[in-house]
Amino acid sequence: MNDIMGEWAFFANQTFNGLSVASILALVAVGLAMSFGLQRVINMAHGEWLMLGGYMAYLAHQVLPLPLYLLAALPLGFVVGALAALLLEVAVIRHLYGRPLETLLATWGVSLILQQAARNAFGPVGVEVAAPTWLAGTIHLGEISLLGEISLPWVRLFVIGLAAAALMGLAAFLRHTTLGLQLRAVSQNREMAASLGIHTRGVDAVAFALGGGLAGLAGAALALIAPVTPTVGQSYIVDAFLVVILGGVGSLGGAALAALLLGLTSATLQGLTSVSLAKVILLFLVVLFLQLRPRGLLPSRTRALEEV
After folding, report:
1. Contact 32/240 with Cβ under 8 angstroms?
2. Are 208 and 86 in contact (CB under 8 A)?
3. Who contacts 276 (Cβ-Cβ below 8 Å, separation ≥6)?
4. Global pTM?
5. Could you read off the pLDDT of 85-105 as tens digits, one per residue?
6. Staple 259 to which of 26, 27, 128, 270, CB 3.0 to 4.6 Å?
7. For 127, phi and psi rounded to 5 degrees?
8. Residue 10 and residue 222 in contact, taking contact as beta carbons nearer than 8 Å
């Protein structure tokens, strides 16, 4: 009986950890889905916005008093990620629209430059950020869950809540603001939107900056639960592309749902096997699913899909 309860508790804890990782992944993938769905740009540097957000949290942690640094770290991660993405769009991407191979290579080069810059500035070893005291501690559900010892760290609950709030804020922005409606219009039919007077290049820049900001915010949140390294973005970019494809190219709701499924499935598989084997099985499952539903979980009508 104790063994069964122990196994249930293990999988419950794995599921909870998978949910917190899925929250980070959802923030990264939604930004990637926006840039690909709207501009058909495969941005290999998108993971570096997450890395920049993590280092911004580290700098805030070094400069500001411990209980207060998080109040600056989260908006700082968002702003720096958004500005970096906007700079990339204006300086590089804008001149390569309609040339996907050149765009991929250019953003990959930018990604390598940013990784080396971070390595020079902070060193090759990961830096850690201590969570504020008000996020210390754990909720123990062992006595009321009847499933054994289940622990829910406050810091992971905070990350999950932050991601949920950011995604709901993004949904409200897209549904209820003029700029959000313009972004949706350009995503669905660029030529029609342009004929109605929408400045499509400006919308492209906003979408790119918004996606970078969300990734930067994810990086600042990730710093609370994992070390920040120069290559941390590359750890998430492959999974983020899987999420975008699995959710349906250009579908923000699909990306959020796919991130949840991918994170939970990955955590469960890692509990049953190993990290490397779980990756292989997960990739196989995604490929198998796409054979059945090539357009993903929640396909969206975007310019990119029409041209594919």
Report:
1. yes
2. yes
3. none
4. 0.86
5. 999 999 988 888 778 888 889
6. 26
7. -105, 150
8. no
